[in-house]
Each structure stands twice: as C-alpha cells, then as structure tokens.
Amino acid sequence: MGPSPPSAAGSAAQRARGGLLPTLLFLGVVSTAVGSLGAPLLPTIVLVHRVSVVDSQWALTVSLLVGAVVAPTLGRLGDTRRRKGVILTATAVVLIGCVLAALPLGFAGLLVGRALQGVALALVPLAIAVAREALPAERRASGIVVLGVTTAIGIGVGYPVAGLLVQYFGLAAAFWFGAAVSALALAAAALFLPRSAGESAGWVDPAGAALLAIAATGLLLVLAQGGEWGWGAARTLWALGVSSAVLVAWVVWELRSRRPLVNVRLFRHRSVYAANISVALICAGIYPLLSIVVRLVEAPQSTGYGIGASPVLAGLMLVPFSLASFAASRTARPMIERSSAEHVVAASCLLLIAALGLYLVAIGSVALLAVVMALAGYGVGCVFAANPVQIVGGVPAAETGSALSVYQVLRSIGLAAGSALAGTALAGAVPDGSALPTIAGYRSAGVTGIVILCVALVASVVLTRFRSRPA
User: Fold this and answer.
1) Half-sphere exposure of residue 297, counting CA atoms within 13 Å on the CB side?
2) Which one, of 394, 188, 230, 338, lies nearest residue 402 by Cα?
3) CB burial of residue 21 (10 Å; 0-12, 13-18, 19+)
4) From CA 105, how far away is CA 385, in angstroms rounded?
5) CA dihedral 299, 438, 291, 118 (to 10 degrees)
6) How many helices (H) and strands (E) does the chain have?
7) Torsion over CA of 333, 348, 33 and 393, rounded to 10 degrees?
8) Alpha-carbon dihedral of residues 352, 353, 355, 358, nearest 10 degrees?
9) In terms of DSSP H, where are the helices of 170-269?
10) Averaged in consecutive runs of 10 residues, what is the pLDDT profile of the chain (471 residues)?
11) Coil, strand or helix: which one is 199?
C-alpha cells in the first residue's frame, strides 16, 4: 500500500510557504513603485491641475511626510501578532490613495491620495520582519537581502511605467495602474502571509509617536522648502532648531519609557548605527541623480546639453538602474559572507563616486548616462542589500519591524536632503529670464553628490572595523 496523501491543511500550508517570498517581494516593489509615481508626473501635474512647480512638489513631499510619521508606529505594531493585519491595512490604505489620486477631485484630492500612498513606506520593513520569522532557514538570509533591494528595483519600474501611461493615456492612468497592482498585492498578502508568532498585543507610545512625528515632519519640511524659504532665513532656522530639539526630547523620552515606540538603546549596536549612518549619507549623495538624469534627458536641445527626449524615453533611463539593482541582489550576499556588510557598503561608496564622476563627463550622451545609471543601480543595490543584514544582525527578532522602520525614515530624510541640495544647485544656475538651468547647475549637483559620498566612504571605512555577518 502506497504512502497516504498529504492532508488538505498540509498542502495549503506548503502552498503558502511557496508563495510567501514572491508575495513579500511583490509588496516591496509595489510599495516603492507607487511611492515613486509622483516624481515623473510633476510636469503633467503642473499642466493638468494648473498649479505652480513649487506647489506640484507637494505631490512628493506629502508622501514622504506621511510615511515618516506612520512608519515607526506601524513597525511597532508589526512586531506583534497583529503583523498580518497591519500589512493588509497599510496596503488597503495605499490602494485607496491611488484611487483618490486617479479620480477627478482636483489638486487637493490628488494630495490626499498621495498622502495615503505614503503609508507604503512601512511595507518593506514589515516584509523583512515577516521574512526573518517565517522563511525557512536556508532561504532567510537571501530573502532579506533581496527584500532590501526591492526599493531600488521599484523605482526603476515606477518611473518608466508612469511616463508611458501618462504620455498615452493621461495622468489618471498612472494612478489607476497603482491601484491595480496594490489590489493584487493586497490579495496576495491576504492569501500567503502567515500569522505572526510575536506578542499577542502590541503597544503604541502616543507621546513617543507624536514627538517623532513632529521631529521628522520638521526636518523634512526644512529640506523640502528650504530652497524656497531661503536656507539662512529665520523661518528655516527656527524650523530646524525646533525639530532638532524635539528629536532630542524624543530620544530622552524613549530612553525613560517602560514601553517605548522604538528601543533606541538598540541603535548603539555597531552594525545598527553603521547601517543608519551609511544609508542617510548615501541616499543624500546618489539619489538626486535619478531625477537629475531624467530632467537632463528631457531638456530641449536648445539648451546645448539636453537630449530633447520624450517622457517615456526619459523614464526608461531608470531601467538600467533597476536591472543593476536586481543583479546586486543576486551577488551581494556572497560578498557579505566572504567579508562583511560594512566592507560591501564601503566598496559600494567607491563605485557610486565613480558613477557620479562619469556623470560629470557623460552629460549629453544617452549611452554614457545609461552606464552611469547601471553603475549607480548596482552600488545602491549592494548598499540596500547590506543594510538590512546589519540591522537584523544587531536587534532581536521582536524589534525587527520597529528598527527597520526608523531606518526607512532615515533613508527618506537622506533622500530629501539630497534632493534639496540638488534642487538648490539647479535653481542657482537658472539665468534671469529663463526657466531652465545652465549645464553648470547639473555639474554642481554632481559635485555636491561626490562630496557627500566621500563623507559616506570615510564613515564606512571607519565602520569596517566592526564586521557584521548575516544572522
């Protein structure tokens, strides 16, 4: 008599385990692709909603603000048995945000939709927490590495798809696409995500959440509006001072709280603070390159440096970035195992500096700019693969979601800082009576990125003394 067939429950559990990692990866890509929808759509938003370029920037800023505010709270709730419910709720909110942005509700409705889409910032930390707990041991390390890179891959997907849809079907089509993929992610998460084995009940420290929200909002507002307000203006300095003071008060509160929102003592672990320092500096140094190259390729040939390409071709410049990031997800883990995550980050800084150096001489050449994007994608992919390994290796399993959520906030602040510096460089190179910067602005932005990445390289070299290997 042959072996008895597996039970229906056992078969269902096996199918769920097989679909878990693809579902987590899809959540990561969707979260970033939806979050990046604002950037390539800004020129169209200006035309469709008849708003100024400055006002259109809020379609990006509001997502960063909401994400920075809610990510730590969702990360804390995700470290409990509520994790699956938190992920489903967050994905549903992102879906609603895409629908609101697609409907003809005016610019205010678009901003509300983009604000809700900012909740997607919390999905990748929660997905990594699920992977650490639920993936089989032999797939856990590689799963965490690939999940860390999904944010870079998602940008390479979101930009060209958004440009294609807008050019041929209009602004709303890009957000309907975001709603469709969010709905698929929601269905997959409901089907394949397991229940967490964490604590039965979570907690949210209201005072800690409020203080962190105020500090993050203040810093992001300074970075987003500093160029318009004036970096030395009283309003900018007051906002920076108040947000910095609130951040210090938040740290003191969390250290004294019996049940803190974020266990800040864990950030004293060498691998954890190495990841947080490196990601903030590297994002500030390299991420502005993404928007700069798109603007450079779209600029008219009459400028003397622009390519005059369509939004679709400009968006396709992100494809090499995305493909190289995916390649990094396949090669980073062996490099981390042979040396350390810190060594991989330091080597990636060198590669990113080389990419920006090539960018300075590649202006005007689509082929060379594609090479620049591929180098940048591989370097960023390696960093994003190594950082979660550093954090997971330095915090207990019950703190994974919370620690990674703060890491996401720091990454957003780094991105906002780099974008602000690049925007200032471009704005300072706009001649009187013109709407477009000279080539000097693009070169100045590249040099600024190189300086920041050199600081990141020095910090990373110092931190290579403290090696982190996959847990």
Assistant:
1) 24
2) 394
3) buried
4) 39
5) -110
6) 19, 0
7) 50
8) 180
9) 171-192, 206-229, 234-256
10) 45 60 89 74 80 75 82 81 89 95 92 92 86 84 83 74 82 92 94 74 74 86 79 89 93 86 79 87 87 80 78 78 87 85 91 95 87 94 89 81 82 80 78 77 90 92 60 43
11) strand
Which distant-in-sequence residues (6+ apart) come within 8 Å of 459 by Cβ?
277, 278, 281
What letter represents residue 412's amino acid? S
How far apart are alpha carbons 337 and 343 in whole angstroms?
10
**In angstroms, what CA-CA distances link 422 with 320, 366, 450?**
22, 21, 12
Burial class (CB in 10 A: 0-12, 13-18, 19+), 453: buried
- From the list 73, 84, 140, 25, the residue with the least C-alpha distance to 408 is 73
Q: Which of 94, 134, 87 is nearest to 113 (CA)?
A: 94
Query: Which residues, 6+ apart, have CB-to-CB distance to 317 below 8 Å?
Result: 293, 294, 297, 366, 369, 370, 373
Provide the 8-state DSSP code for 438.
-
Structure tokens at 187: 């269905």
Q: Which residues have CB under 8 Å from 68's CB, separation 6+? A: 121, 213, 216, 217, 220, 409, 412, 413
CA distance 327 to 319: 12
Rg of the chain over Cα atoms, rounded to whole angstroms, equals 22
Q: Phi, psi (5° rounding) for residue 431?
A: -70, 160
Nearest to 328 by CA among 345, 316, 315: 345
Sign of the alpha-carbon torsion through 401, 406, 411, 416:
positive
